[in-house]
Amino acid sequence: MTSYNIFFFSILSFLLGVAIASLQLSLLILISTTLLLAFIFSLFKKLSSLILITLLIPAGFFYLIWNNFQYYNHSIVFNENISFKGVVVDEPVKNLKQQTFVLKVRNSFLGRLLIKTDLYPQYHYGDVLSIKGKIDIPPPDYYGRYLKKEGVQGTVRFAQIDVLKRGGGNYFKKILIDVKGGVIYAYHQLLPFNKSSFLAGMTLGEKSGLSKGFLDKLSLSGTRHLTALSGLHLTILIFIVFGALNYFLPKKTASWTTLLLILLFLALTGFKLSASRAVLMAFLVILAKETNRLYSSRNALALTALVLVIINPYILVFDVGFQLSFLAVIGIICLSPIIKKVLLLKNKGFLGWKEGLSITIAAQLAVAPILISQFGNFTLTSFISNVLILFTVPVVMVLGYLASIIYYLFLPLAIFISWIISFILSYQILIINIFSKLAISFNPPLNIWVILIYYLLLATIVYIFKRYETL
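Now predict its structure.
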């Protein structure tokens, strides 16, 4: 077995062990899987590779067990009225009825708690709070697994809260939050509220101003990911931006320009974990892909997944965003060349629209089972609605950021740019409205075997295509 294959399968084995432990499968499953893979890899007749790869399965398994021990190793008192102090470690999420934020407790016990309280008075990142209330144990369901992934060990609802100090926290992070607030303020001054809220959702993942009716239309049209810092949205966006820049610039220049633009985007979003993960995965694969080195994209993707799972092993099974971004990148790498051939997209097209079309379809095909099984809102017409909208998203995002900066420097020019943005947003909203009415839902009941057969079918198509290309 070659060194790059040893590298790839070693990472895959470690991730498999983490997955087995995450799904709470028995030690019998772990041992059976390890022995089965040991037999398969023994066919390569290389003992050192066999030992390395098979030992990494239990290593991944016990790595997650160790993280579980760390997560539950606390002295939090549940279901009793107690007092504690802590600092707000992230920007509170607000809607029309309440606000939610994570509190890092600094006395009595060490831990992270999710606090849900009334909309007013409003709290901010860095506030030091004294809270008296009851801490609830996270439920043993999907929501509980989400809290575990976020490192939250308990929840507190509508407790008594007193502010001890304002303005704490990391100085750099506070600046980023203030900049984000300034950008959203500029949007609201330049555009009607419905459009400014939509733009804030696309550029910053801020959904507080979006009505329930519009969010429902986004779901029906299959474009809900536009207003979230989702793995699918960001992965497609990065590849489309790169494709558009590559239309004008050399590959290397386009790669680094894309990196700079994405880093600016990450800074404005406050380096959200979901955004950072998708950006890291997609951009490393772009760099590896453009080096034209055999297997480099595959191994770059595997290495990125390994690093992210080591940082937080719960994301492998419990984070849908990780799965969406991971599968979207794989789909773009493996399926977009096939789609180009099938649809006769021989060149990039103006501003790379053909590249964007193939990328969008490939990503949608790759993530379809996850969208169906996890959200139940997959529509067959979403392929068309996403193709019609996604090529405009990079343009409106760049113009949106530009307008928010110029608003504070030269208002007349910002107003002119906002007219262009408003026109594009009107087009996007029109497409969303049309396809929310034309939605053809496709949400069949899926189990693990159906999903595996689907991905095996896609893998077979990719394999046949690559064999055909080499003939």
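The first strand starts at residue 81 and ends at 88.
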